């Protein structure tokens, strides 16, 4: 193979793009440096889950989410498995319900099943949201229902608030615990026009992440009643998540939380504006059509190979990276995820429009030439 | 309670001591800052276990330990449970053997049992090391034997190298996997006069820590064959330990590894010197009598309450903190752990001698006055 002739991949081109439509910028060491340079050297580390630096942040997030207590975790994977285990133990059943594209089902190497022997009941079709009627039609006794807001893998869709209220009431009546996968909870508040506490009040336990819309380095919080979070700390120790020091994640989580939690409306408006432009392009739709958070999927009616070439060329010609990760949907369609963050506002409107006009042209070209 | 009259606790006095006999200094944010300030802002984060920053460090440690491959973990708790689970799955039995004061038995809230239903067989008495004869007398089929070098909870004792060789040969003959809890492996190399690779060659899998003698922020490495570490990565994902970014721990682990792995001989010599001085004090012994690593226990033949007052006064008068954490052993005896690091060399010899002369006097005083 002649290395000189190897074309750069989409992800390489994207990484060196002048502008990127999604995200907050490069995930590099500078992200940590910016967060810690404002902290005094002499502030003590947290020690195995105790100490001012972790406790004050836990209290702050518990208050923000309107719950009694919060526990900082290195990851959401760990936090959510533990939440479901606690509810299963409390209710004496090994069954929970969640969406077929739930993070626990597709991204965790079956940790829930392998570590806890908990059996999930999959609710709703892959391409649909869980509805109140799905919940009412549940035939099995479950300890807990997990709802993800927004449902990331289908473009970040959301049930209407009233439907959430009905699901919550129903679960309380039936003695089913309701857990919120709020990896992107902050991002949906502008659509619901609710506070985080108002949404969380519908749930018994909530997980939030600090590296999606917030853009921290890693880290998650699990919130709920005092009894629930006390139990979760024991499991955190069992998992090896009760590190002697979590402060690199705590400091960066709090720094970027303070910086960005108030910018979710801006990201949401950006997502709606950009999605509308994509929807004017030939053979391109967004899912959802009108975003309900900072995220959406761009669905291309052409094969992944063809669209990849289009996006590489587009990036080279305009300096705008749409995505670095295009995924096959069917043989003749593909999609990418866009999450609007700080980067989008840096792209001049005219440049974005020029890029999308070019994209529209290129999609017409590959649409009319048939398969390569 | 009149707060003005509350005496500071031993740990408070210790934290503000001018000199501390053990450790590398305060665990504060400065530890992270020192490590990352020398790294370029533009270096990319690791992403879910991949990327140059994690891969090069894994390769470096695998090579140092003489094994095929290594996987960086957020914690040793996670790494070791996973190691034992892999060996149990491979050998088709749910039993392992380890010391009664093994970390997995006493510090992990029974994670091994609760998450894996693995049953440990406890080898040796609490106060003794596991011997070759203990291993030979094992009545049960086990998948794996875990040996901790040094055995921390009994003062950091070590079997002789030849005994390790016999245990290793026996395990290989019997098809028992041998796992090394090497949380303090680097610290025992001067005593054995062996390389890390020579010690690790006796074991099928090895865990090392970066925040004990190395003094990093947190983090661990699990090393072994390629098949073993590949399997461990799947479990790391299941545990929620496969964080999007582990670089704060990776960078600091490597920085302090480079800084201190060559200083273990100095720490070991310091430990021997200091232990000898303690052993000249009235009613004080060290365990072991002559340290075999940078650590040892100081055993006081007086009640915890009395010794605490002695150490508080000693610290106030001499500026030297012996420990911040004195533990009851029996009603009339107590002990503390000393791990020599960078701090010890900062204490002028005469000051250390003065402090220990004073300690000797005070121990005589409380020894002769009977119980308060």
Q: Care to describe what's here?
A:
Two copies of one chain form a homodimer. With 372 residues, chain A is of the alpha/beta class. Chain A is built from 15 helices and 13 strands. Chain A has helices spanning 10-15, 29-36, 52-65, 76-91, 103-106, 111-116, 132-136, 161-174, 185-192, 196-200, 226-239, 247-260, 264-279, 304-318, 349-368, and strands at residues 19-20, 69-73, 95-98, 119-122, 144-148, 177-182, 205-209, 220-224, 284-287, 295-300, 320-321, 327-330, 333-339. In chain A, the strands form three sheets. In chain A, strands 2-8-7-6-5-3-4 form a seven-stranded mixed β-sheet, with helices on both faces. A four-stranded antiparallel β-sheet of chain A has the order 9-10-13-12, covered by helices on one side. In chain A, strand 9 (284-287) and strand 10 (295-300) form a beta hairpin. The longest helix of chain A has 20 residues, at 349-368. The two termini of chain A are 22 Å apart. The mean pLDDT of chain A is 96. Chains A and B meet through helix 2, helix 4, helix 6, helix 11 and helix 12 of A and helix 2, helix 4, helix 6, helix 11 and helix 12 of B.
